[in-house]
Specification:
Distance between the termini of chain A: 21 Å
Largest sheet of chain B: 7 strands, mixed
Strand content of chain B: over 45%
Order of helices and strands of chain A: EEEEEEEEEE
Oligomer: heterodimer
Number of strands of chain A: 10
Number of strands of chain B: 11
Distance between the termini of chain B: 37 Å
Number of helices of chain B: 0
Helix content of chain A: under 10%
Shape of chain A: globular
Structural class of chain A: mainly beta
Shape of chain B: globular
Helix content of chain B: under 10%
Radius of gyration of chain B: 13 Å
Strand content of chain A: over 45%
Number of helices of chain A: 0
Structural class of chain B: mainly beta
């Protein structure tokens, strides 16, 4: 498969643990944030998004937290499974712009 | 519904050559965006097309160009290839501007 990030931060967890992936963004004017998952050999896949008027949003097994004060975004994955192993990217967008800016990504490795 | 398809999946070229990559969006999607993904720079926006018109452009040299056809299919072209153009080129489609994007698997371009 494709190797999309040879020098990425890596998070290793055991199956069943909760995972927390962090992302710092730079633009205080950003008002829309997205988390993507990219598996080897595939393109990024949308996981969850959050707008700047919220500080928490929950999906199925995933929660995104937004701290605008310190410009920090996190993705929490509950009961992590081997199928969650992938590279996770955050992306930010600023009002009026359709162009997302992507973070560098974090490689999540889930051990059975 | 079929996903975003990109052809070819893999390509090897030499410096100075030019290359054309193709993207077929999800049926009904009218917006197509292109991204370059490298280990060093991560995911970077190239350009976005909607209704055959380039709507947004990233910070890439003029050697990178694209177009969109009336059936929403898109091509991107890179002329006078450089070693640094080696990357995974991703295409994403969405129903319209400012909608969730769906990514294809990418074309892996290697420039020798």
């Amino acid at each position: 498969g494709e190797s999309v990030g040879l020098h990425l931060p890596t998070l290793s967890v055991q199956e069943g643990d909760n995972s927390i992936i962090n992302c710092a963004y730079s633009n205080s004017a950003s008002d829309y944030f997205i988390w993507y998952k990219q598996e080897s050999g595939k393109g990024p896949q949308f996981i969850i998004d959050i707008r700047s008027n919220m500080d928490k949003r929950q999906g199925q097994r995933v929660t995104v937290l937004l701290n605008k004060t310190v410009k920090h975004l996190s993705l929490q994955i509950a009961a992590t499974q081997p199928g969650d192993s992938a590279v996770y990217f955050c992306a930010e967008r600023t009002g009026g712009s359709y162009i997302p800016t992507f973070g560098r990504g974090t490689s999540l490795i889930v051990h059975p | 519904k079929a996903g975003v398809t990109q052809t070819p999946r893999y390509l090897i070229k030499t410096r100075g050559q030019q290359v054309t990559l193709s993207c077929s969006p999800i049926s009904g999607h009218r917006s197509v965006s292109w991204y370059q993904q490298t280990p060093g720079q991560g995911l970077q926006f190239l350009f976005e097309y909607f209704s055959e018109t380039q709507r947004n452009k990233g910070n890439f040299p003029g050697r990178f160009s694209g177009r969109q056809f009336s059936n929403s299919r898109s091509e991107m072209n890179v002329s006078t290839l450089e070693l640094g153009d080696s990357a995974l080129y991703l295409c994403a489609s969405s129903p319209g501007l400012n909608n969730e994007q769906f990514f294809g698997p990418g074309t892996r371009l290697t420039v020798l």
